[in-house]
Amino acid sequence: MIFNLIKVKRFYILLMVFVLFFSISIQYVAAIDTGLDTTAQKGYGGKDATVIPKGIPQEIPGTIGKIVGAGLAFIGVLFLILMIYGGFTWMLARGNEQEVTRAKDLIYSAVIGLVIVLAAYAITAYVGGIFKQ
């Protein structure tokens, strides 16, 4: 009975911390200027879009950059999830050597994947910088 009461108290404490954290986060995000008001007033692209000397509209490289940025953000979130999952697997292994090895391999693979993605981004940025000049 006491054990269940302790679990219920922990649950409510964690729930209050969770709600407090996200209410503060939402207030912080609401204060950030995203530029949507400016876009709503002036529009996106249109007549005012500048043109790169080769005749490509300025919107295309910007759009490609946003897509690459979104992809890198997704990979970062995926890396974070894999690291948390590997950490929990390692913690909950309870001395089982196969589980510990599996968790270590997962963390190691996630780090190697992140290094490969960052190296690919660095190479792309370098080559793009060369062709831009």
Structure description:
This protein is mainly α. It has a domain at 50-132. The chain is built from four helices and no strands. It has helices spanning 2-30, 36-42, 59-91, 97-132. Helix 3 runs antiparallel to helix 4 (97-132). It is flat, with a radius of gyration of 23 Å. The mean pLDDT is 76.
Oligomer: single chain
Q: Please give the number of β-strands.
A: 0
Order of helices and strands: HHHH
Largest sheet descriptor: none
Helix content: over 70%
Flag low-confidence runs: none
Radius of gyration from the alpha-carbon trace, in angstroms: 23 Å
Number of helices: 4
Quote the average pLDDT. Answer: 76
Class by SSE composition? mainly alpha
Strand content: under 5%
Distance between the termini: 72 Å
Shape: flat
Helix and strand layout, with pairings?
Blueprint: H1 2-30, H2 36-42, H3 59-91, H4 97-132
Helix pairs in contact: 3-4
Descriptors for this entry?
single chain; mainly alpha; 79% helix; 133 residues
Condensed summary:
The chain has 133 residues and is mostly helical. The chain has four helices and no strands.
